[in-house]
Automatic annotation (TrEMBL):
Residues 1-18 form the signal peptide. It comes from Thalassotalea piscium. This is Zinc protease. GO terms for molecular function: metal ion binding; peptidase activity. Belongs to the peptidase M16 family.
Length: 962
């Protein structure tokens, strides 16, 4: 649900470098010349853009980021195009099917090639388009283009593969259905639209997903209609020669036959009255409100869409007066955010709010609608409007720090009319918007007849939901302060360079492991108070107001032994930004209202964000907690709920004074930070207490004996599984790189190339993915690459099986993973798999540090582990590895005698019964499977987990992290 702002292209002229434009014949000369001749364009780079004879459009942009290339292939087909009754979800389904390959490059063949080449590839589907994205080293560009062209022209799959993937899609639907925001979106779309295809989400209607295995003929029809060159664009950005690249595209894609299908989507009839619906969600903590208004269709040359986006940011973002009133000041709401997907036809503009008390639903709804009423009758100040434009400009610059980010941004706009000049049309309309335009357009769209409201909670209905409006609050001024310098005792990693983006990382070697007994959560509260609270001279609201036009970032990340405060700003705004964030970090205000708000948010994130809404992350965190019973790592990073209730502001102040010392501080700087500012920073940090402990002392993990299981029972439609055991090998150990390679082969995160993924997800269609880890990897549901600054003195080997459709399937999948782990330990890796995985990681490693802030974070981690620079470290280790080394490391680090399993299930008693009785867990398919697979299934369905009754615990979710 990533937002794309209208002004996302404002700074293209500062970020897209060394582009080349050429004329490519009469057919394309106007397009190429358009970007060359106009001086009044934000996307003013010379680029190579061509429409081939078959209708395929190709955009090539050369950048100065060395070696890496990003290829994005937006296909102008999304859930909007699913206008046949009973046939929804097929745009998303073919996002999956496109990975099956072709006769020339079947999945196993191209996956092996991609793995060896270190290609990171994936795809996503939206309302209006499907995008395929690949990132890799430039040496593999020709191969990637050839393989992708062959797949688009000659996709090949069996009926069995079609049916198996349909099961996977169903599993993904069930997984997504656990998210409150997804359920709200599905409900509002179904209610707001009567005839338009925006009535259903990208996943489709569930009954259509269930029927999908029997829709093979329609699937072929859908693919033949939309997967044609006139619907497809190629965006290639990176360290490439544009002319040579275009020649490669013409060679591989030029003979693709053009289609003749045109899809006409009937417009939605005008809504005649406001609508309201309540969704009951059993067991949901708190109460949700969604207020949605129908907006404008995609008109980049008109002002409507751009003005509506400005409205959302001015009045409903976390910098708005309404957010300050509801979330920060009155604390009526615990969450508030807006979401405005860019759609071809008139879509919905959303404001989400979560409250804890049902009586506040009407209060926050009234506040939202009162805000809409105010903006229809008042003119926004020129200061606010200019600040917003400044924020959007620098926010975009901050994001475009790699070829991949540039390519993905272009792809998001190319799909509309397959013309890169869409960006310029859009900005021209945006830049010319006045306060009067906003007022006029608000009166056109924000009317009762365009509104649909949804509430969602465990209640059968919301009583007394009558329409009223309230007023919102005003904003105060900001002052500056200085601190007194003293001699620095902290370490500094100075990587300043010519980049206009400045990244700073204040990394303290302390964290949740330092929480005192009975105060679990004080570290988390401290970190949050320093980034989401005010300073001695400024309120949080004042800081946010002044940060806004600077587009400066400042946030915190907490783990067991690391507390990281990271910030980014453009060099133009560095001094103003630093004064604000240094004030927060070094002169915290310790306001009681900030503390109450932040503590409330933290408690809500555990109750609603983790325990209620994220079964996958919950299972992983429960596993860590169980493996570290009685250890400093036992508690969840955010704390225990009972402890959080009793923690006071004085506890936070004491933790800050004792733990945030110069001795524990490691500062990282990169980008073009002025010397004067750097000097000031060093001086200011010297005011921190000196301290005498450089890092926490962490004991070894408790000894794990035998097989143990924890079953967390909650309202869940699927069963999530995690299991693992402590390991002694951490990143600073000689065998770590070999073990990292083994992990990648067995279960690379979010990769279809890994062995476990192939066995459970690909061959059997059981779930959405299966992965393995040797380092802590939180938030894995939401990201494909790990974060930096999660260094630990103790780690575990962990297998994460994404949610399964039932307890039976979860039992089978767990057995399958254990069976495959036993085989790996017994047989080791083959020479072929070893070489392919080593090649993959050698090529893939640079992608982990593809952006400036990632490079800084990993460099600081190398300091923590006392290892060389990360990419060099792993590549040097790999160069010395042999297959014998790897298989030795497997034997010495992996085992299945002592394991803890965690299951998140809707029926804990049933799961416990299955485990203790070693109940057979047969797997049923909806299509024919190979005989050898079925024979293996017979072994797996009875594979023993060997769990004694005394080692199996069923706990209610409300008791977790209590």
């Amino acid at each position: 649900m990533k937002k794309t702002y209208l002004a996302a292209i404002i700074a293209a002229s500062l970020s897209l470098t060394a582009c080349v434009a050429t004329n490519t014949g009469a057919k394309n000369s106007a397009l190429a010349q358009a970007s060359e001749n106009s001086a009044n364009k934000v996307f003013s780079q010379k680029y190579l853009f061509k429409e081939l004879d078959n209708g395929l459009r190709v955009l090539v942009v050369k950048t100065d980021y060395p070696d890496l290339v990003s290829v994005q292939i937006p296909v102008s087909v999304g859930s909007r195009d699913e206008n046949e009754v009973g046939k929804t979800g097929f745009a998303h389904f073919f996002e999956h099917m496109m990975f099956k390959g072709s006769d020339k490059y079947p999945q196993a063949v191209y996956a092996d090639l991609f793995k060896n080449a270190g290609v990171d590839n994936g795809a996503y589907t939206t309302n209006d388009y499907t995008n395929y994205h690949l990132d890799f080293s430039k040496d593999h560009l020709d191969t990637v283009l050839e393989i992708q062209a062959d797949h688009f022209k000659n996709l090949k799959y069996t009926d069995a593969q079609f049916k198996t993937e349909a099961l996977t899609v169903k599993g993904e639907y069930l997984k997504n259905n656990a998210s409150p925001t997804r359920k709200l979106l599905a409900a509002v779309r179904k209610e707001a639209f009567d005839t338009h295809t925006y009535k259903h989400t990208t996943m489709g209607f569930f009954e259509d997903v269930e029927a999908m295995p029997n829709q093979i003929a329609y699937g072929e029809k859908f693919f033949k209609q939309f997967y044609k060159p006139e619907y497809v664009s190629l965006v290639i950005v990176g360290d490439v020669d544009p002319k040579a690249t275009m020649a490669m595209v013409e060679k591989h894609w030029g003979n693709w036959e053009k289609g003749d299908f045109v899809n006409n989507i009937a417009p939605e009839p005008k809504q005649q009255a406001p609508k309201y619906v309540h969704e009951k969600y059993d067991g949901l903590p708190g109460h949700w409100l969604l207020v949605s208004y129908k907006g404008a269709d995609w008109q980049p040359k008109e002002k409507d869409r751009a003005a509506l986006d400005l409205v959302s940011e001015l009045y409903f973002s976390n910098n708005s007066a309404l957010y300050q009133e509801l979330v920060v000041e009155k604390q009526v709401a615990s969450q508030m955010f807006n979401y405005n997907p860019e759609t071809k036809d008139a879509g919905l503009r959303h404001v989400f709010i979560k409250v804890n008390d049902e009586k506040d639903l009407a209060v926050v709804r009234d506040a939202v609608n009162d805000t809409y009423a105010k903006l229809r009758t008042e003119l926004v100040s020129s200061e606010k409007l200019n600040n917003l434009k400044s924020n959007l400009k620098y926010s975009f610059i901050n994001r475009l720090d790699s070829s991949e980010s540039i390519a993905s941004t272009l792809a998001r706009y190319m799909h509309f009319d397959r013309d890169p000049e869409t960006i310029n049309h859009l900005y021209n309309s945006f830049d010319n918007i006045s306060a009067e335009d906003i007022n006029r357009i608000a009166n056109k769209y924000f009317i009762d007849e365009n509104r649909t409201t949804v509430t969602m909670s465990a209640l059968d209905k919301v009583p007394g939901f009558d329409q009223e409006v309230n007023l919102n609050a005003a904003v105060a001024q900001i002052e500056q302060a200085k601190t007194n310098p003293s001699a620095p005792l902290f370490t500094v990693l100075d990587k300043t360079n010519d980049s206009p983006l400045i990244d700073v990382n204040f990394l303290f070697y302390t964290g949740a492991a330092a929480d005192p007994k009975g105060k679990k959560g004080v570290a988390a509260l401290t970190a949050a108070m320093l980034t989401r609270g005010g300073s001695q001279t400024r309120s949080y609201k004042e800081i946010q107001k002044e940060l806004y036009p600077l587009a400066g970032r400042f946030s915190s990340q907490l783990d067991k032994e690391m507390m990281s405060f990271t910030g980014r700003v453009h060099k133009d705004n560095a001094s103003q930004w630093y004064q604000l964030i240094s004030d927060q970090l070094l002169n915290p205000g310790w306001r009681e209202d900030d503390f109450k708000r932040i503590k409330k948010d933290l408690i809500d994130s555990i109750k609603a964000g983790l325990k209620a809404s994220n079964d996958e992350e919950l299972g992983k965190e429960v596993l860590y907690s169980k493996l570290y019973q009685g250890h400093a790592y036992e508690s969840f990073n955010s704390g225990d709920l009972s402890d959080l209730d009793s923690i006071t502001l004085d506890d936070v102040k004491a933790f800050y004074s004792a733990q945030l010392t110069q001795a524990k501080l490691n500062v990282g700087i990169t980008g073009a930070m002025p010397n004067a500012l750097k000097t000031q920073l060093m001086s200011d940090l010297s005011t921190l207490p000196a301290g005498d402990e450089k890092r926490l002392t962490i004991a070894k993990a408790p000894k794990l004996t035998g097989h143990q299981a924890t079953i967390v029972e909650k309202n869940a439609q699927s069963t999530a599984v995690s299991f693992g055991f402590p390991i002694d090998t951490i990143r600073s150990d000689q065998d770590w790189a070999a073990l990292w390679l083994v992990r990648s082969y067995f279960g690379e995160h979010r990769s279809s190339n890994s062995y476990l993924y192939q066995q459970i997800r690909q061959e059997r269609g059981m779930n959405y993915g299966d992965y393995a880890y040797i380092e802590y990897f939180p938030r894995g549901m939401f990201q494909t690459k790990p974060d930096a600054n999660l260094g630990r003195s103790s780690q575990i080997f962990q297998v994460w099986l994404r949610p399964l459709r039932s307890n039976n399937d979860a039992h089978f999948a767990t057995r399958a993973a254990l069976y495959e782990l036993d085989k790996l330990i017994e047989n080791g890796m083959s020479e072929k798999d070893f070489l392919a995985t080593r090649n993959y990681l050698t090529n893939y490693a640079p992608q982990l540090v593809a952006s400036q802030d990632k490079q800084l974070g990993y460099a600081l981690d190398s300091e923590f582990y006392q290892t060389p620079e990360f990419v060099k470290y792993v590549r040097d280790q790999f160069a010395q590895l042999s297959l014998a080394d790897v298989n030795r490391v497997i034997k010495e680090n992996l085992q299945t005698d002592n394991i803890h399993y965690v299951f998140i299930s809707g029926d804990g008693k049933d799961m416990k019964k299955r485990l203790l009785s070693e109940q057979v867990s047969p797997l049923k398919y909806n299509s024919d499977k190979p005989a050898d697979l079925l024979a293996t299934d017979k072994i797996i369905e009875s594979y023993k987990l060997a769990l004694p009754a005394k080692n199996v615990e069923v706990i209610a979710v409300d008791k977790v992290f209590k």
